[in-house]
Amino acid sequence: MSGWSWSPRQAMLQMCYQPASEAPPPPPIYGNPLPPPGPIPGPISNNGTTPAYYNPPPPSVPHLTGHQVPGGPPPMAASTRARGMPPGGQQIPAPAPAPAPAPAPTTATNSRKRKSDVAPDNTQEDLFPTDVPDIDSDDERLESLGGETCNSIRRKIRNWIDSGAQKVGEFQKTIGVSSKAYGSFMNRTGTWDGEGTDTFAKAHRFFKKRELQGLPLKANKPKKAKTAASAKATEEFLDVSNVDPLPGEADGTVPVYDTCNEIRKKIRPVLAKDGITQAAFIRALNKNLPEGKSVSAANLRYFMGRKGVRDGNTNITFYAAYVFFEKKRLQAGKPKTKFRVDMENAWGPKGFDIEHGANQQYTCFAGEEPIMDKYGKIDFVQRF
Length: 384
Fold this sequence. Notes:
With 384 residues, this protein is mainly α. Among the domains are: 124-213, no CATH class; 228-369, no CATH class. The protein has helices at residues 8-16, 115-118, 124-127, 150-162, 168-175, 179-186, 198-213, 228-238, 260-271, 278-286, 297-304, 316-332, 338-347; strands spanning 368-372, 378-382. Strands 1-2 form a two-stranded antiparallel ribbon. Strand 1 and strand 2 form a beta hairpin. Helix 4 packs across helix 7 and helix 9 (260-271) packs across helix 12.
């Protein structure tokens, strides 16, 4: 047969040729199952086509954009379509983020104020509470004086009034006495002077009852913080060093032209000023006294506890306070008052008597009686 040739190589190629099957591809495999048992097909020896190897699908990685298992559904195409919008459908709104929890209200638990600064002062509810045990007016304990005297009751009354617990009229109404009876008792000075008065008995029962009930005997005044400005103002008020010494100041013989009552009236508002203590006032008085003389706290208390035009005139407080207030007058450039001029006319160049006390005895003729005027001068008048 002409035109045909045969060779062993061509015969082997024809024998090994396997046409591709027209069967449809196998269904997609999900979950990456293990490969089927059996030997893995390898390349066919002496085959000129591309060797065939078993290449399993890559492992599935969840939540990886664009990942697709071979033969699986196509990945979602990246587009500007809103999240949750299916193809051809309406937009599915994205879930709203959960609202942030509201911050818990903060409470001021670390206040820097001290309790004593925040606590209110005594009020009427504190001084006269309604939830205290009642004590009958016939209780025997109210009659016991203990160590009380007329002077101690007077001190308690003054402390009660001066603290602002009640006004004088309110206190008189509370204990049930008249203003005349109250004034008569308070103007006395003896230890037991006024023992038989209604004011002494009723005031004693009033304070004794409060003691048994555990109630305060005076109102607590608020303590004000001492500032540099207030301290400076106090120092300036008590300083009279820029005033020239008064005549006789060096040896303590300055003529006094004031009464004891008038000096006490001037001292009280000074001690009531904010920032001025009794000790500071005493130091200011002592600066005007000659060496060897000084005012003590006991001197000041005794003088302030007296009452009368001449009562306390021999006390060193009377003299020292007069010198201080006279310098304050000169420092302020104020003129002499009419009472001051009248005192000069009444007492002359020597001034008020500071040597003989109020209990001085006088010798007079029969039918005469010593009478003291408002300037403290003693005159003898006929009784008939």
